[in-house]
Amino acid sequence: MTRKKQLSVFTIAATYIGTVVGAGFASGQEVLQFFGYFGLPGILGLVLTTILLAFFGYLILDLGRRLHADSHLPLVRYAGGKWIGTAVDWVITLFLFGGLVTMGAGAGAIFTEQLGLPFLWGSLAMIVISLVTVLTGIAGVVTSISFVVPLLLAAVFGVAIYTIATDPGALLSTLRVYANPGKAPVPFWPLTALLYASYNLVLSVAILAPLGSMSDARRLKIGAILGGIGLGAGATAINLSILTHIGRAANFEIPMIYVAGTISPLARIGYTMVLLAEIYTTAVSSLFGFVARMGKQGTAKYRWITLGAGAAAFGLAQFGFSNLVGTLFPTVGFAGFLLLGSLVYGFIKDRKVKPAVEAREAVLARQPTPAMAFEVAEELAGEGKDGNESN
Fold first, then answer.
1. Rounded Cα–Cα distance for residues 208 and 264 (Å)
2. What's the CA gap between 96 and 197, in Å, rounded?
3. In this predicted structure, what is the pLDDT of residue 239?
4. DSSP-derived 3-state class of residue 152
5. Dihedral (CA of 356, 57, 34, 129) sign
6. pLDDT per residue as tens digits for the range 76-100
7. How far apart are CA 22 and CA 390, in angstroms?
8. For residue 214, what are the CA distances in angstroms to 144, 207, 218?
9. Residue 81 Ramachandran class (φ > 0 left, ψ -120 to 50 alpha, else beta)
10. Neighbouring C-alpha atoms within 13 Å toward the C-beta of 45
């Protein structure tokens, strides 16, 4: 029977990048806290993070392909089993909602600090446009995210190249002497690199799992590698830009807008618009992942949950952007170690049950429903224990 259209490598990579970048990434605040405060060792942290994002991104995409996942639930249940899978499921689901709240707060902060408009307007506009996009389903989500990503990368690399080229001495001086690890979430750069990869994977798994069912293994692997490299390169560009102006940039909630402002007022306005677009991509992916976990696309339940989640997120976003970024992300990073451990366990387990998985794939090829995907994930999680199949 006819399958879904195969996504291109570019779309896969761009969607992966788009689910990770958002208010924290594009603003420079995440990169500053997790890598910039370490100075030169932070560069090594970015290399480690790039490898982790490419590797685990592919594991998620490939499991999503083989389980024909419509949400992250079949994947985490297969990788972690009943108990750990359930715990990981709750971590992901709660953080997806928290990510939506944070993006709403980020839009409000930009409206206030950069545009001189009420905080309420920014968070409301972001939540409403995210609601409209998510109500169109996964196709609309993927299209919107993959469209925005090239704009972000162009803006980030443009600002970085100009900033470094015009004052390379300042960057070299910073790399030689600067280090302030006490301001990082944890004062040990390998652990912050793990935390950074962990919480970003928790956020992206809700999109990557169903995305995996929309292409073949080769494209998914290349897309994951390119996505990881793109994220690492973008974060490195942001890091070097901020370090060039670390004396002042570190004092701003949105350091990259300050850096862009050192180029010209027009560059500052342009980067502000790009930042809002990136906040939108993360808000959309967070909301979609949360709602897809709670209800099947196209149903009345799906629509009502979407509207309810948007209303609740709007209210909670009024607590502010910096408070949410500083506390929510590191906490979820630690909790996300459950996800990484489950994926490694699932990867190892897959080597033992691969023939059984391939047999299940033949059955799933007949356009499985989400319930079937979930059922098969439960069977595979218990492979080798009882051999029973659910109907």
1. 37
2. 15
3. 94
4. helix
5. negative
6. 788 777 787 788 788 778 878 887 8
7. 40
8. 16, 11, 12
9. left
10. 28
DSSP conformation class of 264: -
Residue 22 CB-density burial (10 A; 0-12 exposed, 13-18 middle, 19+ buried)? buried
3-state secondary structure of 119: helix
Whether 110 contacts 272, CB under 8 Å: yes
Taking a C-beta distance cutoff of 8 angstroms, is the pair 238, 156 a contact? yes
Angle at 212 between CA 99 and CA 306, to 5 degrees: 40
Query: 283 burial class (0-12, 13-18, 19+ CB within 10 angstroms)?
Result: buried
What average pLDDT does the segment 102-119 reach? 83
Q: Which amino acid is it at 341?
A: G
Length of the chain: 391
Q: How far is CA 345 from CA 101, 122, 200, 203, 339, in A?
A: 31, 42, 19, 20, 10
Q: What is the pTM of this model?
A: 0.74
Token representation of residue 31: 């990169």
* pLDDT tops 70 at residue 364: no
Q: For residue range 240-252, what is the model confidence (pLDDT) as tens digits? A: 999 999 988 888 8
pLDDT tens for each residue of 303-313? 888 888 888 88
Say if CB 338 and CB 205 are below 8 A apart.
no
Instruction: Measure the CA–CA gap between 105 and 345, rounded to whole angstroms.
Output: 36
CA contacts within 13 A on the Cβ side of 5: 8
Q: What are 387's two structure tokens?
A: 């051999």
Please list, in sequence order, all residues whose beta carbon lies within 8 angstroms of the beta carbon of residue 142, skipping any fewer than 6 positions away. 7, 11, 15, 207, 211, 214
Which tokens hold the place of 274? 């790009």
CA 53 to chain centre: 10
Report the C-alpha gap between 35 and 44 in whole angstroms: 9
